[in-house]
């Protein structure tokens, strides 16, 4: 037998011996040394005991969980030491220290007047350190404005995050000189809503914004062009569920409205027309077809457009629906 063969045989026997020892050790740990019963972990007392005879095999084991106990989800959240996740909705992304407004200590006791004055000074200096330069102050004001408008428009959290990212890009690319903070923030929110497929009309945005419609449209075009944002034209169908919900219409009307818009798209009459007006006209026409009549004034109030627009558009939509498709 050659030296190589002997060496390979020796290594294989050593490995098999090691595996057998590991198996025996694992088996001895999982079974009771007295009766051979199954061992279980008692996390409450930190012990490993035998399920059959009750022998304590190991004690004072390390508890890797928290030192506190919670009896419901709310209490668990209150005692958790994990902070909130980072978010672009805050100018510092939520990484800085925030001193609470409650004048109480860790035990819930009220602070003395001297301690309250001290905490107020600490809050003031903490706020000054959080916004140390003009860029951070600008960002803080704009993100607060975005959050306020998004709440008034009922936009989801994802749209607010996207709008914050767009505004941060505009700020880093130095697009703000010569434009108001409110104007760029409103344009960022309008662009984010259209990107997310939950658009709001310019009139709806203007109602909650501190800038007029002309400044909003001018700033929006500039931001989209400079940042190369890919935003598709607004789809009239994206407005239909919201309008139908505000008018308390059934799902049948919503479905029929989408069919009318789809037929109008195939007929080629959507180009160059306001998607809000088309959605409102489709809602009105579908409600008539489904015998759930609503007035033109009710639809115009919900969609924030004139009744004349609804009359003109719904006739075109009904004509496209009646015409045969090629």
Report what the structure shows:
With 326 residues, the chain is mostly helical. Among the domains are: 26-63, N-terminal domain of TfIIb; 134-227, Cyclin-like (Cyclin A, domain 1); 236-322, Cyclin-like (Cyclin A, domain 1). The protein has helices at residues 3-30, 73-79, 113-130, 134-153, 157-172, 181-195, 202-208, 213-227, 240-246, 251-267, 275-289, 296-303, 307-322; strands at 39-42, 47-50, 56-58. Strands 1-2-3 form a three-stranded antiparallel sheet, with no helix packed on it. Strand 2 and strand 3 (56-58) form a beta hairpin. Helix 4 packs across helix 6, helix 11 (275-289) packs antiparallel against helix 12 (296-303) and helix 11 (275-289) packs across helix 13 (307-322). The longest helix is centred in the N-terminal third of the chain and has 28 residues, at 3-30. It is extended, with a radius of gyration of 33 Å. The mean pLDDT is 82. Residues 27-58 form the TFIIB-type domain. Belongs to the TFIIB family. Stabilizes TBP binding to an archaeal box-A promoter. Also responsible for recruiting RNA polymerase II to the pre-initiation complex (DNA-TBP-TFIIB). Keywords: Metal-binding, Repeat, Transcription, Transcription regulation, Zinc, Zinc-finger. One of its GO terms (biological process) is transcription preinitiation complex assembly.
Shape: extended
Structural class: mainly alpha
Largest sheet composition: 3 strands, antiparallel
Please give the number of β-strands: 3
| Secondary structure tally, helices | 13
> Roughly what fraction of the amino acids lie in strands?
under 5%
């Amino acid at each position: 037998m050659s030296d190589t063969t002997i060496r390979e045989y020796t290594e294989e026997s050593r490995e098999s011996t090691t595996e057998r020892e590991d198996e025996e050790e694992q088996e001895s740990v999982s079974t009771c040394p007295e009766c051979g019963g199954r061992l279980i972990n008692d996390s409450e007392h930190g012990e490993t005991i035998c399920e059959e005879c009750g022998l304590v095999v190991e004690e004072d084991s390390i508890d890797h969980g928290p030192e506190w106990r919670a009896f419901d989800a709310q209490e668990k959240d209150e005692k958790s030491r994990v902070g909130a996740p980072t978010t672009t909705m805050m100018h510092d992304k939520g990484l800085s220290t925030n001193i609470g407004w409650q004048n109480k200590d860790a035990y819930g006791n009220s602070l003395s007047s001297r301690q309250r004055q001290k905490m107020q000074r600490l809050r003031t200096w903490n706020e000054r350190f959080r916004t140390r330069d003009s860029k951070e102050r600008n960002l803080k004001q704009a993100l607060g404005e975005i959050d306020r408008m998004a709440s008034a428009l009922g936009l989801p959290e994802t749209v607010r995050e996207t709008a914050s990212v767009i505004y941060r890009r505009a700020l880093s690319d130095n697009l703000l000189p010569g434009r108001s903070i409110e104007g760029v923030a409103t344009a960022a929110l309008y662009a984010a809503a259209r990107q997310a497929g939950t658009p709001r009309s310019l009139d709806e945005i203007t109602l909650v914004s501190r800038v007029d419609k002309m400044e909003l449209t001018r700033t929006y075009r500039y931001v989209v062009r400079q940042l190369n944002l890919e935003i598709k034209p607004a789809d009239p169908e994206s407005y239909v569920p919201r309008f139908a919900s505000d008018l308390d219409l059934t799902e049948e009307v919503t479905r029929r409205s989408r069919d009318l818009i789809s037929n109008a798209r195939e007929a080629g009459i959507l180009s160059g027309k306001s998607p809000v007006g088309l959605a409102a006209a489709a809602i009105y026409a579908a409600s008539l077809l489904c015998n759930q009549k609503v007035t033109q004034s009710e639809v115009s109030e919900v969609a924030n457009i004139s009744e004349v627009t609804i009359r003109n558009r719904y006739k075109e939509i009904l004509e496209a629906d009646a015409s045969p498709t090629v």
